[in-house]
């Protein structure tokens, strides 16, 4: 569709995206899949052009997908007909158009009044399949929670401890992460000695992919549990708006981006917002770190300063709103 759009624009100087139905005659296999999956791809391309035309500087021109780096997934919308919905859950699976009932394990079950809107099926590089199910639910606006000094937590990013809190707590990631990373280094050494394309090489590459996925799952599990614990325990959280990309380019030991701290801040934000609480960001240029004591004492001191600046920022904003 993107190639045809580019050719049409070159020949006529007009923007036009053909629909997926145009390609079914020359590619009969497209008739074997749910038409909703094809429509969703058309919608994504249309959305990519809409945001590009709206703000070309922020959104680049749509590009072709890359085989090695792109997600291997499809989405399909649910439609309610007199004969029943096109997508629905069963006791031990999910029914999808054309695919029929596919066996599945569910992390949680929806309530009876939830309305199923869309599903997205992903296949990982290890051959595992995951299905994300989107439901429409009538929610309630959370009641705003006013933070105080005693109910606010200040956090500072720490390369050694993931974060350091103003009360002295440190979120040292569990040791399983280090063990998995040591296994990953061992597999990489063994791969370097094998002949590319051999049977042993292919089997080791699969183990390498499985371990990478396992590490990502471990990190994601730790981040969600830790952010949920903090969001439930505190009325507000103050963090410094550190640019992790910039920190990673500096003289640091270890991989800053692999820590998952950016994902941790995102999880904290939405989990706090759902409870009427706030994540208060302090300028990364604010002088928060002192020059006294050991490294961990400086981090605690910085976390206290981040908390004080975050609360001051919050109450100043409230005064401006009241005066307006």
TL;DR?
The chain is α+β, with helices and mostly antiparallel strands and 324 residues long. It contains seven helices and twelve strands.
Tell me about this structure:
The longest helix is centred in the middle third of the chain and has 35 residues, at 199-233. With 324 residues, the chain is an alpha+beta fold. The mean pLDDT is 87. It has seven helices and twelve strands. Helix 3 (175-192) packs antiparallel against helix 4 and helix 4 (199-233) packs parallel to helix 6 (261-273). The strands form four sheets. Strands 10-9-11-12 form a four-stranded mixed β-sheet. A three-stranded antiparallel β-sheet has the order 1-7-8. Strands 4-5-6 form a three-stranded antiparallel β-sheet, with no helix packed on it. The protein folds into three domains: 1-70, no CATH class; 77-139, no CATH class; 152-323, no CATH class.
Q: Tell me the series of helices and strands, N- to C-terminal.
A: HHEEEEEEEEEEHHEHHEH
User: How many individual domains?
Assistant: 3
Regions with little confidence, pLDDT below 50 for 5+ residues: none
- Note the main sheet: 4 strands, mixed
Percent helix, as a range, is: 40-55%
> Based on CA inertia axes, which overall geometry fits?
globular
Strand content: 15-25%
């Amino acid at each position: 569709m993107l190639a045809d759009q580019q050719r049409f624009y070159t020949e006529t100087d007009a923007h036009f995206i053909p629909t997926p139905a145009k390609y079914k005659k020359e590619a009969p296999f497209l008739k074997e899949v749910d038409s909703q999956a094809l429509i969703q791809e058309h919608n994504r391309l249309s959305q990519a052009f809409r945001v590009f035309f709206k703000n070309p500087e922020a959104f680049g021109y749509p590009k072709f997908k890359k085989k090695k780096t792109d997600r291997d997934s499809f989405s399909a919308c649910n439609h309610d007909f007199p004969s029943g919905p096109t997508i629905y859950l069963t006791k031990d699976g999910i029914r999808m158009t054309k695919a029929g009932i596919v066996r599945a394990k569910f992390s949680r079950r929806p309530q009876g009044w939830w309305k199923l809107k869309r599903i997205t099926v992903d296949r990982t590089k290890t051959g595992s399949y995951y299905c994300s199910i989107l439901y429409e639910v009538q929610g309630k606006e959370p009641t705003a929670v006013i933070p105080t000094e005693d109910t606010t937590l200040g956090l500072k990013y720490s390369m050694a401890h993931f974060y350091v809190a103003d009360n002295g707590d440190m979120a040292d990631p569990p040791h399983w992460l280090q063990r998995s990373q040591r296994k990953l280094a061992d597999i990489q050494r063994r791969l370097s000695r094998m002949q590319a394309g051999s049977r042993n090489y292919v089997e080791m590459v699969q183990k390498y992919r499985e371990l990478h996925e396992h590490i990502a799952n471990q990190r994601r599990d730790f981040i969600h549990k830790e952010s949920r614990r903090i969001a439930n325990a505190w009325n507000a959280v103050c963090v410094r708006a550190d640019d992790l990309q910039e920190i990673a380019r500096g003289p640091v030991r270890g991989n800053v981006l692999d820590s998952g701290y950016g994902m941790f801040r995102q999880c904290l934000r939405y989990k706090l917002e759902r409870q009427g609480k706030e994540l208060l960001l302090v300028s990364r240029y604010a002088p928060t770190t002192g020059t006294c004591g050991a490294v961990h004492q400086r981090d605690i001191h910085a976390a206290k300063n981040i908390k004080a600046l975050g609360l001051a920022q919050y109450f100043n904003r409230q005064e401006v709103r009241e005066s307006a």
